Here is the input.
Amino acid sequence: GAAFGVYLSYISVKNYESKLNFVVEEDGNSGGAIASIANSFGIGGAEQSVFTSANIIEFMEMRNLVEQALMKPVNNNNKLSFAQLYINEHNLNSDWNTKKELKKIKFLPTQKRSTFTLAQDSILGQVYNMIIQKKELTVQQPNLETSIIEITCKTKSELFSMYFPQVLIEVVGDYYIETKTKKLKLNLTTLQQQTDSVRNELF
Here is the structure.
């Protein structure tokens, strides 16, 4: 679970800043009951949670996850992605109409990443670099004695600054669940193999 709060402030004529705080729920052992059962068979062992206060920042700034969030829709009509919103608000496409290879490029939330052209991959990578290198998106742990993480987003777009951190948390949360599920399935598979081996020896 995660508790968070967010506020938006008008920084200057060109920039809006939002801060979002959430709590990382750290569990010392992954797998719960399954891990306990596995340990009783002599397999598995104590494992650190994939998501802790110490490494959450790396996940929140990971290129793959940030780009996934950038391709999420800004609203329910699925016509505008955060990537396209960022490009529009920063006028990155101001001269695209003069370049044949860029003229028709759009970043629609419904487009699958596997269908991206080389130009789209390059542009999305540039957007990611601008956001991270210019510190438009920063993730930090203000107090090392707590598990509270703070995301700050400061861009020219009020909508982007307000909602992108929330979407990024959703993407990272989905990644966490997927990783946790894969680990649980691996534990179950290993446990089943161990059980079958013991059964074969007994019978």
